[in-house]
Amino acid sequence: MDHMRILFAGTPQAAVTPLKVLSQAGGDLQLVGVLTRPDAPSGRGRKLTPSPVKEAAQELGLPVVEASPDSEEFFEQIEALHPDLAAVVAYGKILKPPALNALPLGWYNLHFSLLPQYRGAAPVQRAIWAGEEITGATVFKIGPGLDDGPILAQSTVEIGPQETAGELLDRLSTDGAYLLAAALQGLAEGKISAHDQEEGVFETASKIHPADAHIRFDVPAFAVDRQIRACTPQPGAWCRVHRGDDPGRDDPGRDSLGGDDPAWNAANKPISGHGTGSGITMTLGRAHIDKSNNPSRPPRLSPGQVAVTKKHVWVGTLTNPLELDLVKPQGKKMMKAADWARGAHLSPRAYCD
Known about the structure:
Shape: elongated
CATH class of the largest domain: Alpha Beta
CATH architecture of the largest domain: 3-Layer(aba) Sandwich
Radius of gyration: 24 Å
Domain Formyl transferase C-terminal: 207-242, 281-344
Keywords: Protein biosynthesis, Transferase
Pfam families: Formyl_trans_C, Formyl_trans_N
GO molecular function, one term: methionyl-tRNA formyltransferase activity
Low-confidence stretches: 248-277
Strand order of the largest sheet: 5-2-1-6-7-8-9
Strand content: 15-25%
InterPro entries: Fmt, Formyl_trans_C, Formyl_transf_N, Formyl_transf_N_sf, Formyl_transferase-like_C_sf, Met-tRNA-FMT_C, Met-tRNA-FMT_N
Largest sheet: 7 strands, mixed
Distance between the termini: 61 Å
């Protein structure tokens, strides 16, 4: 084989670096085309927008295939490109046997965990939520099962104590890009071969939905911290903030805690349960467990209880208070928690739930 002809399949931003690295890999690797999801509505105007991978592919001058892998059009376009195998990074569609069998050497996926641990859609988020200290990336051959194909290569990274899912995914995207290129080069040279995954019972990585990101404060501070970091930036860890002087009348149209309630804004509809009743919905962008001896910090806060000074905002948990660093009140941009609190007119009875 003079060159291994590669079809790249991916969609989101996390797949852009692997695409670019493969395009520059040289050696025995030749990128011949890119498979990605079709343009999708985005933003308040719901304008059709190309995927980050499609934009990158066009910049690189690569042919783009957007046909569904179970359509006749897909097989016609793939046949014209003559790929030997596919490199997959967060493509986002299930590949059925006819598509898997269409390429002579198969499809190889870059998965952001140390398989067989955390098979599924959200391995980075689930690793942080579980309190893992080490994770990594795996290149494996896709088969009919869920992320259970034979492994070609793996690499490991440490998870930072304050690292969010978005930050960790960015690192893994870069590390994994070079792992993927090296693994495919080794495969082309016949220097490495895939081995079966270990059998046993392992943690899975089901998708995290907005309802899962609703923060619980009646748990230890470390658990709240992990949930926030795991859900940042998507879907966003959230809670409802109550000013503490609610006379019992619901006013979902406007609340002095943050602005217009998005439940009444058709262009920014919240998930079920957001924007109704007292208080506002607020996303917590960054927080940390406060174990300091700050004299202004209350010695004890009940779970969900809020305490504020000019420079600090704390929320109680089952153990240590959590200090809020960045927050996003509904309808607003992300801001420093102390800046938000100065205009929120919180009473001493303010709380989050």
